[in-house]
């Protein structure tokens, strides 16, 4: 079942909408799906639906609500892609993390204080998933082609729960030097696993559109499913 839900900010100064996909039976855990710069669009909603089919309560908060609520953009349409980049430049990432934490608290409150909650993010969401792992008590975090993680390595000491990162080797937003820095900084971290994808570019695991690379997307999603099964049990 799918619908939308409202979540109050941690500061109590507003509320935002989240897309919600509920499994047929009792949820085995919850997963917060963190959007790309294109908003909670059809691809992100499909990610939630797939997680619900696997037995998880999945929600995708609208993190751009302070800029413009309900943003849905198509990366294959240039004016919409350009609009997404504009929004990214205006987005307050610290407030975004606070809204993700509010989402984690909301689903944990619903399922019970002992319920496990994970996050999975894409692009901007991949970066935010790493930040969430370092700044909140989330139980497991997955980031797909997160941008700028090499600049966040000073926060790695705060990561207490498992993190999985999917890194396309030909990511035109994350160059080889940044990828090397990620490996140098994280390969020996006991909670972090990095998978590299030769020949793949940014957005390879999108649900729809020109960026998708089907074989690698399926492999990454299988690894994510196994990771969540092991860490949100």
From TrEMBL:
Pfam families: DLH (PF01738)
InterPro entries reported in the protein's UniProt record: AB_hydrolase_fold, Dienelactn_hydro, Dienelactone_hydrolase-like
The Dienelactone hydrolase domain, residue ranges: 16-230
TM stretches of this protein: none
GO molecular function: hydrolase activity
Family matches, as Gene3D superfamilies: alpha/beta hydrolase (3.40.50.1820)
PANTHER family: ALPHA_BETA-HYDROLASES SUPERFAMILY PROTEIN, CARBOXYMETHYLENEBUTENOLIDASE-RELATED
Protein's UniProt name: Carboxymethylenebutenolidase
């Amino acid at each position: 079942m799918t619908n939308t839900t409202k979540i109050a900010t941690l500061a109590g100064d507003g509320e935002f909408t989240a897309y919600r996909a509920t499994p047929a039976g009792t949820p085995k855990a919850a997963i917060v799906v963190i959007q790309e710069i294109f908003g909670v669009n059809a691809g992100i909603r499909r990610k939630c639906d797939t997680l619900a089919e696997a037995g998880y309560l999945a929600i995708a908060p609208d993190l751009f609500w302070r800029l413009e609520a309900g943003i849905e953009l198509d990366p294959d349409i240039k004016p919409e892609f350009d609009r997404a980049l504009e929004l990214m430049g205006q987005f307050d990432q610290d407030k975004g993390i606070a809204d993700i934490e509010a989402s984690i608290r909301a689903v944990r409150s619903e399922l019970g204080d002992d319920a496990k909650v994970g996050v999975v993010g894409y692009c901007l969401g991949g970066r935010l998933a790493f930040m969430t792992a370092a700044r909140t008590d989330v139980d497991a975090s997955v980031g797909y082609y997160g941008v700028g993680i090499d600049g966040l390595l000073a926060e790695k000491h705060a990561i207490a729960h498992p993190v999985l990162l999917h890194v396309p080797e030909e990511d035109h937003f994350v160059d080889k030097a940044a990828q090397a820095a990620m490996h140098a900084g994280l390969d020996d971290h006991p909670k972090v696993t990095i998978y590299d994808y030769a020949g793949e570019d940014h957005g390879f695991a999108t649900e729809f559109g020109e960026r998708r690379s089907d074989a690698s997307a399926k492999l990454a999603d299988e690894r994510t499913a196994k990771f969540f099964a092991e860490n949100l049990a």
